[in-house]
Amino acid sequence: MIYDYLIIGGGISGVSMARLLQLSGVESICLLEAGSEAGGLCRTRRIGPHVLDTGGGHFLCTKFPEVQNFIFRHLPRTEFNVFQRVSRIVIDGCEVDFPLESNLWQLPSSLCAEYLISVVQNGEARGLPPPDHFESWIRWKLGDLIAERYMLPYNRKIWGVPASEMDIDWLHKIPRIDVRRIVEACLNREFGREYMPSHAEFYYPASGGFQQVFDAIAKPVDKFVLTDCPVTTIERENPGGVLCVNGRFRARTIINTAPWPTLIRSPIFNEEARQAIGRLRHTQLVVSLHEDAYETDTHWLYEPDEQLPRHRSFFIHNFAPRSAANGIFRETNLQRWQAGQGEIHAEINPFAYPVPSRGWAASVMTVLNHLRPFGVHGLGRWGQWQYFNADVCIWEAMHLADELGHPQWRAGMQSQSSPILSV
Ligand SMILES: Cc1cc2nc3c(=O)[nH]c(=O)nc-3n(C[C@H](O)[C@H](O)[C@H](O)COP(=O)(O)OP(=O)(O)OC[C@H]3O[C@@H](n4cnc5c(N)ncnc54)[C@H](O)[C@@H]3O)c2cc1C
């Protein structure tokens, strides 16, 4: 049998792609998932009375109306709670609302003055051009003090890579607040929700965890999914002909959502593509569950202190009220992880963040440009090797469905629409 589409990886990218093809009338689809269950980073487990999102803190917020409609068509909006984001940074022994630079006024006044002086002396305020790597960019944008006490240690913890080795083409993830506004916020002592770069308000499923979103999209395409099927090789059977996966599954088109390094032994790669894959870097993440009573209203806390292995903590009950009142989960880069810190459960994500290391975009393009003429496409966080959230993965799947000549999924989407949350 030759499938029209073979999809590698059963995370949100893979199943959304399968679903969009199905909505467009395609039925010849096979999706191969390495694990014993699909879901990827969007999985949730119940551990005793706790809801644990095993891929770390996941919240729904999108600027794409089509993506929101797609999700709400599968899991109605009434199945979600909506939250005003409460996230804080632990800095100099204080907790300050995110983003730090527009809430410096929450620090004791002598500290606030120190930070403010550093901010107004930054490179941007002095009219210098933006630098081209992450460490210099942070100093240019936020000043040396915020860089040294918050951004550089926090980013060292999360990425495990010096900021000087990272590109700046992913920085839409970071607030862009100008110096004037930072000074005004201090003078007016006001909390500016509008300066959140994303997730100012977010949806979270009213029952269960984030996996509810995944499950709702995955259910109609369950029949296409084969689990416990790690793909190791892709090859062409004959020049210009059919593609073959693991020497067994044959297809006309392949959509890969799995990390490229897991496929590196594939005969389909030339040496240049193989070397490009070798340059791609990623992080591995431990998500650990802890029990500790809390009274905070915080959803999550950023913890730049390098004495602590973890970089973020999530207060589960504050966004999943049916989960026990004392559940906290923490995110720790595997390189820094130390077991036996009071965790009652821990999950390792072998692929968590694609690292925007210098030159990453050129490496990804080398791989994708090599494969596209053979009918092999990359999709999602790993297939496109980008710091995409789940909503962007769905958005990219929509684009790919269109590009492959299957835009009919749109017809089904028009029947429902909901207002978009501010992002
Ligand atoms: C800590 C953290 C917090 C996040 N927070 C948010 C958030 O708040 N909101 C949001 O929208 N997004 C968030 N994201 C991003 C979101 O998790 C991802 O964008 C999305 O889940 C990626 O989906 P994917 O299908 O591309 O990849 P994955 O979910 O990684 O799925 C890839 C799948 O491929 C399988 N696979 C791997 N290798 C092979 C192989 N060789 N053969 C077959 N199968 C294979 C894997 O088992 C997996 O199931 C967060 C991510 C992290 C790590």
UniProtKB/TrEMBL annotation:
Taxonomic source organism: Termitidicoccus mucosus
Residue ranges of domain Amine oxidase in the record: 191-290
Coiled-coil blocks: none
Domain of life: Bacteria
GO cellular component terms listed in the entry, alphabetical order: cytosol
An MF annotation (GO) of this entry: flavin adenine dinucleotide binding
Pfam family, one: NAD_binding_8
Name assigned to this protein: Amine oxidase domain-containing protein
InterPro entries membership: Amino_oxidase, FAD/NAD-bd_sf
